[in-house]
Amino acid sequence: MLTIALPKGALLKDGIRLFQAIGLDFSAFLDPANRQLQISDPRGQAQALLVRTQDVPVYVEYGQAQLGIVGYDVLKEKQPAVAQLADLGFGNCRMSVAVKATSPYRSALDLPPHSRVASKFVNCARDYFQGLDLPVDIVPLYGSVELGPITGMSEAIVDLVSTGRTLQENNLVELEVLYQSTARLIAHPISYRINADQMNEWIDKLRQEALAIA
């Protein structure tokens, strides 16, 4: 049976809606009373796993799921060995460099060498500043990254931005956008190649639906 890894959080509702549009119903995950982490489509066509967003590519890479939905930001950070099949067109956000609104810096290149930059996207942040040939010290944070500049622990942050409201409410401003991120459809490479469980038929339907949404 085809197994699909779905992400908890912001992408879940749109992901479930996408699969419903092609005839696979995993809406039981949206029921607050439901505590199951693995459910089957009522028609028995496929099953889904509900996992942390960062774990979606892990389940797909190791073959416990043949398909998955995950943000491009996670793929960019983790570089998993999965097949990236389609941009699904939802979950729009951006990876940005931000600083305190009162800071003198108005571009990333204004930051002094060896400034501290807080981020949960350590690899993305490091690659970006290496590309600028600007040495910085990356401070790994996995909670409220915005507190880095607020407390003075870091001069800047690299983090996902959606509406920008959180930055504004914490008196932070964006300096640069590293890249745009949306939800992506990924697959286990070997399963995709051999068309396990007729997954290519489902992939074609998902691609068509994503284009229709776009």
Describe the structure.
The protein has helices at residues 12-21, 56-61, 72-78, 122-131, 147-151, 165-169, 189-194, 199-213, and strands at residues 2-7, 38-40, 46-51, 67-71, 83-87, 93-100, 115-119, 136-140, 156-161, 172-181, 183-187. Strand 2 and strand 3 form a beta hairpin. It has 214 residues and is an alpha/beta fold. The protein has a 6-stranded mixed β-sheet with strand order 2-3-1-4-11-5. A 5-stranded mixed β-sheet has the order 8-7-9-6-10.
CATH H level of the largest domain: which superfamily? Periplasmic binding protein-like II
Number of domains: 2
**Average pLDDT level:** 95
CATH topology of the largest domain: the name is D-Maltodextrin-Binding Protein, domain 2
Main sheet specs:
6 strands, mixed
Indicate the radius of gyration in whole angstroms: 19 Å
Strand order of the largest sheet: 2-3-1-4-11-5
Element-level helix/strand string: EHEEHEHEEEHEHEHEEHH
Shape: elongated
State the end-to-end distance.
Answer: 29 Å
Number of strands: 11
Specify the oligomeric state: single chain
Structural class: alpha/beta
Count of individual helical segments: 8
What portion of the residues fall into strands of 2 or more residues? 25-35%
The CATH class of the largest domain is identified as: Alpha Beta
The percentage helix is 25-40%
What is the CATH architecture descriptor of the largest domain? 3-Layer(aba) Sandwich
